[in-house]
Every structure is written in structure tokens, then in C-alpha cells.
What does this fold into?
Amino acid sequence: MRARWLAASTVLLLLAAACANSSSGKTKTTTTSSGGTATTAAAGTFPPVNEPGVTATEIRVSGVASTTNPIGGQYGTAFDGVQAYFNMINSQGGIYGRKLVLVGRHDDQLSNNKREVQAIIDQDNVFAVLPVATIFSFSGASLLAQNNIPTYGWGINDEWTGPPNLFGHLGALCNGANCPSILLPYVAWKLHKQRIGVLAYNVANSAACVDGIKTSFDKYPVAKVVYSTKALSFGVTDMSADVKKMSEANVDFVTTCMDNNGVLTLAREMRQQGLNVPQYLPNAYDHDFMAKNGGFFEGSIVLVQESPLETTPKFPALQNYVTWMDKAGYTKTENASIGWTNADMFVTGLRAAGPNFTRQKVIDGLNRETSYDAGGMLAPIDWTKQHTDLHYPRSCGVFTMVKAGKFVVQWAAPGKPFVCWDGTPATVEGSKPYARQ
It folds into this structure.
């Protein structure tokens, strides 16, 4: 039960709706079987490497993100996370005598992912692709799989599941009614909430999200879904009827499959009608948004996909992230953090491959990792299984509570923000979650 749908489905559905709307080495260039160019390079005392995007002094990568989007999401900051990590590694001499270089920041503008991925392959001459932070469809995934290019990104799209060269930060996804999750029932149980309201947009992925929530409470009946709707239009401005129905049903906890604009519209209407109950927000770890609007979400729970900045004490990997983002003057966002972990995945594979690295060796190197966690930045991933195993028996999440517009980590140990379950617990009450860095 690789329970990730609560976060991933929200992002997928809202954009589906929006769319409906050193240098002494010698070099030699050759042609690869895929039609690209390969460069043979001897970097100092390291052996020559005959791979695309590798020179005597550089290992080149490009990425693609939905930088331009209709909801104000800061998805392009994933590039900053990659660059900050590369800055750190390059300050230590790089990898095998070569600097890591991010040569392209492509913007797919929601609907042009395949086109931009093709441009990376045809024009950028890169060894790997990172980050990928696309919020509608990762339609270029098939091209990257066909060309066996190591690829790392924000793993919220179904296309990340399957190909062994595609490394999403969540591992294989499990969405919808066939994937009950303990995460939301656990929150309801911890908060002593028993009557749940669920709201979603009228698109397929949103409906799947609602179905997954209902299935979760069927499996873990610590609370009951007493009101749900899949009929809201993206961009809806009037939720008065739904809030009235939730009030009449005595809802004491609300969760949605909507973007931040939607949950804010809902929160305002709830306040207007006096429905003063918390929300569960699987996609709202946004410091700017919460600083401006936190008064509407006091006591609400925000699910975070990676170790949050609020983790104390900060373990070395998290402190490195903060230090190098600050050195570059970058804003620390959720997608920037994920970009950082994408870069760590890439470097982990490079180091495992050794100085005679190839694309395949880098892919194989990370795929030998059975508990990869980017130094504690991510929940652990078993890459020997989690490209394809949708029901891998571990669930993890970081739960934060909104207090005075800030995020406060809940139910975890100092320096270990993830709450995890191994296996599939029979009940929430009898389960034994543990804290993990």
C-alpha cells in the first residue's frame, strides 16, 4: 500500500481541470544509436567516458517544469534545488573531476511536456534529465524511457511508475479505490474526529482521490465520510451549498482533492457559515500561502512529502539544503526541496557507477538501493521494488499542524519527522507507527 494518492492526486486533478481550460583530456564526438551525440572525455586522472553530455570538465543535465501555470504554483523552483545541490558538489571538486552543470530549464507550460522533453533529447546534449516537475501530464516519459536516459523528478504522475530509468521521489504511485491508506484515518483518529466531509472537482483524477479516501475509511473505520461531492468545477467561487450540507451533516473534519485556491475559497465559506473545523491539506506546504492565509486554517493538518524546514534538530542533509539554498539566494519551497533530492538521486547513481560510468551503470547503481532516503530528506524507497510495486507495504508521511500561519511537525520524534508504518496494519488503533529521519 504505497499510499501516496492523497498528495499526488490533488495536483494531477487540478491541472487536468486547468488544461480543460582537468582540461587536458582529449575529446571526440560520435553519433549514438539514438541519434544524439556522445563525447569521449578524459578528466584529469579519471578514465575517458564515451557518453552523451560528458566532456573533460562537465556532466551536463537539463530539466523541465511547469513553470508557467494558472494556479501560481512554484514548480520551477525545482531547478533551484538542483542547482543548489550541484553547487555543493562542485565546491567539493565535482564528480570524477567533472563539474555538474544544469544547462537547460525548460518550461512545458502544462501542455507541452513531450515537446520540451524532445527538445532536451535533440538539442541539449545531456547525460541525464533532472528535475522534472510537471503537474498535468508527464507525456515525455515514454521518450525518456525509450532512450534509456536517467531521469529524476517530482513523482506525482502515473508515468513515473514502471520504467527502471525513471526515478520519481515517491516511488511507484497507488491511486484511487484500490489503494486504501492509513494516513488520513490516522490523522482523524489523532484529532478525535469522526465525521468527514470530502470535496473534489468534477474530473476523473479528482473522483479517484475521493474514492481513495472513502476506501481508506472503509478499511480503517475510525471515522465516517458523511458528506462528499465530485461535482465542483475548477475555479469555483461559490461553495455555500456544500458548506451548508456539511454543517447539516455535523461534519467535524474536512478534506479535499483541490488546489490551494480551492481550499481557500472553501475555508472562507466555512468561516462565513460558522463551520469552524480543521481541514486536511495534502498539497499546501507553501510558506508564503500559509503566512498570508493561515488564519483560515488554524489547527489544520498539512501533509508534507519530504523533511520540512521545521524539523528540529536539523540533520546534516537538511542543513546542507538550507545552507546551499541560502548561499544562492533561492527561495526554499517544497519543489525546490524535491529538486534537491532529485540531484542527490543522480549523484548517488553516479557514485555507485564508478569513474567508468555510463547511463546504464548510473541507472543500475540507484536501482540497487533498498532504502534510499536522500540522507533523510525523503521517506525510504526500495528501488529494487518500487518502480512497479504499487502495493509496497510501507506508508510514510510528515504531518504538520498550522499554528499562527506556521507549520509545526506533529506526532514525530526530534529530528525524525516522518511517521511510518511497515506492512499493512489491521487497525489504526492497534498500529505501531514509528518516527524516521
